[in-house]
Write a structure and sequence with these properties.
The structure is a single chain. By secondary structure, the chain is an alpha/beta fold. The chain has one domain: 3-Layer(aba) Sandwich (Alkaline Phosphatase, subunit A). A hairpin with a 4-residue loop joins strand 2 and strand 3. The longest helix has 24 residues. The N and C termini lie far apart (about 70 Å).
Length: about 500
């Protein structure tokens, strides 16, 4: 009797929560393992809101997403949103009616009296669509007829990390699942030997305005951790610990993993902890990736004509060009979501210097990715999204007399993204900002609307893909968002 009482007193915290959460643990386990055949005896997932049980809500237009995320916020009024009025007002104070009562970053503070700044480079119209594109982006201009420019984006955050988190996860505070994690959870991967969600990062050499890549930009939040993005590195092994230690053959590794899996399943049966199931799945995926990733990373079979499309940096690992080509190779192999993050767009005082480098490093690869996907028949079912977390002010940050230090501050009230493929209407411009590029005024598109539209193209009703956490059902779009039907073909 005494020993029984002591055994109950000695129960661990993990055991307590594991045994108390048997129902939720079992449901989560079924969803985690049924797709990979790791627990064939487990019943199919039937719980409401726990991903999609084997089918999308409706027929998808896209099977994959490639998000070309430009950390630091590209300047819309210098790249895609042409405003002749800025030339007329160049050097004059911003009209108070445009900025009165508006919140800007602490670097701007009160915007009254700030001087208007014309575009650094001239614009021209391109393609049959007549899209306005700056000379900063000549390669993007060449594929303008494949793109849909959304020029009425707006957001709520005025600083980088909260704004990036908001755009990718639906919340400014870190801790919520990101887009790729939701897709992994909802519809999984079409690849058996690669993750559903892959991330790559890059930054232009010599930039003074690089952004920090926080892990929560591709995190799974409160979803099971197997859904977080797998980061492919720019140097060494693409994935840590991909290579076996000396003396460890693949057959020995297989036997070792089988034995570890047996032990983990015993623990899983005792505690019903979904993270144990995640560990089993991660070990299995890692073993498969030991065979698949070397082939993925081998560009020797890529024709020279394709490599030339992406530009001179394409064979240099860790560059945006290399990552763009890898993104195409990943979706070819069935990866659901590829998130490329390129830092350096935070031009507070480098519009006339580093903006040229940023565009040189990203313009050609972005355009090449669209063209490459199209020529391979992949653009129809691959949705490509290009853009940052917000825009930049139409007025100057800095001294008008010191052209080498011209800059623009953060601007949440209007910015531009472009989309291509995946059922998006090509050769179009949707929405508009006002005559100064200050505020989105026509067919306004909020961040949650963009998220809802991306999910919609993959056959997902954004209101129906939910996960219960801390007493409520969460979704990517929080309690907001509408599909932007005007951009759909």
């Amino acid at each position: 009797m005494k020993m029984d009482m002591q055994r109950h007193l000695d129960i661990t915290r993990r055991e307590l929560f594991g045994k108390a959460a048997t129902g939720l643990g079992t449901a989560a386990l079924a969803g985690l393992l049924s797709r990979d055949g790791l627990a064939a005896s487990m019943p199919a997932r039937t719980d409401v809101g726990a991903g999609l049980p084997g089918a999308t809500h409706f027929a998808p237009k896209a099977k994959h997403v490639i998000y070309l995320f430009q950390n630091g916020a590209p300047t819309h009024v210098d790249l895609f949103d042409y405003k002749p009025q800025l030339h007329k007002l160049h050097g004059k104070p911003v009209p108070d009616s445009y900025v009165k009562g508006k919140r800007f970053s602490t670097m701007t503070g009160n915007a009254s009296g700030k001087l208007m700044l014309q575009p650094v480079e001239p614009f021209a119209q391109h393609g049959r669509s007549g899209a306005w594109v700056s000379q900063f982006m000549p390669h993007t201009a060449n594929v303008a007829d494949e793109l849909c420019f959304i020029k009425s984006m707006h957001t709520e955050a005025v600083n980088h990390a909260p704004a990036i988190s908001f755009l990718l996860s639906g919340g400014e505070i870190p801790g919520r699942p990101t887009l790729g994690a939701w897709l992994s959870y909802g519809i999984g991967s079409a690849a058996d030997d690669l993750p559903a969600f892959v991330v790559m990062t890059s930054v232009s050499k010599g930039t003074s305005c690089g952004q920090i890549f926080y892990d929560f930009y591709w995190g799974s939040g409160f979803l099971p951790s197997r859904h977080q993005g797998v980061k492919l590195r720019g140097g060494g092994d693409p994935v840590l610990y991909l290579s076996n230690p000396d003396g460890m053959s693949r057959d020995i590794k297989r036997g070792l993993l089988d034995d570890v899996a047996k032990l983990n399943r015993i623990k899983l049966e005792r505690h019903n902890d979904p993270e144990i199931a995640t560990r089993i799945a991660q070990y299995e995926m890692a073993f498969k990736m030991q065979a698949s990733v070397p082939d993925l990373a081998d560009l020797s079979n890529e024709p020279k004509s394709v490599l030339d499309m992406y530009g001179p940096q394409v064979t240099e690992r860790g560059t945006f060009a290399h990552n763009c080509l890898m993104a195409r190779r990943l979706v070819e192999r069935g990866v659901r979501c590829v998130q490329l993050m390129h830092a350096g767009w935070d031009q507070h005082n480098s519009l006339t210097t580093e903006l040229y480098t940023q565009c040189k490093d990203t313009d050609q690869p972005s355009a090449a990715l669209v063209a490459d996907l199209k020529q391979r028949g992949l653009l129809d079912d691959t949705l490509v999204v290009w853009g940052g977390e917000f825009g930049r002010t139409p007025f100057l940050q800095g001294d008008m007399k010191n052209r080498k230090r011209w800059g623009r501050d953060h601007h949440p009230y209007a910015f531009t993204v472009w989309m291509a493929g995946g059922g998006i209407k090509p050769g179009t411009t949707y929405g508009a900002s006002d005559d100064l590029g200050m505020h989105a005024v026509e067919n306004r598109v909020h961040v949650h609307d963009l998220q809802a539209t991306v999910l919609h193209q993959l056959g997902i009703d954004h209101e129906q893909l939910t996960y219960r956490f801390q007493g409520r059902r969460f979704r990517l779009t929080d309690v907001h968002g509408h599909v932007v039907s005007g951009v759909l073909s």
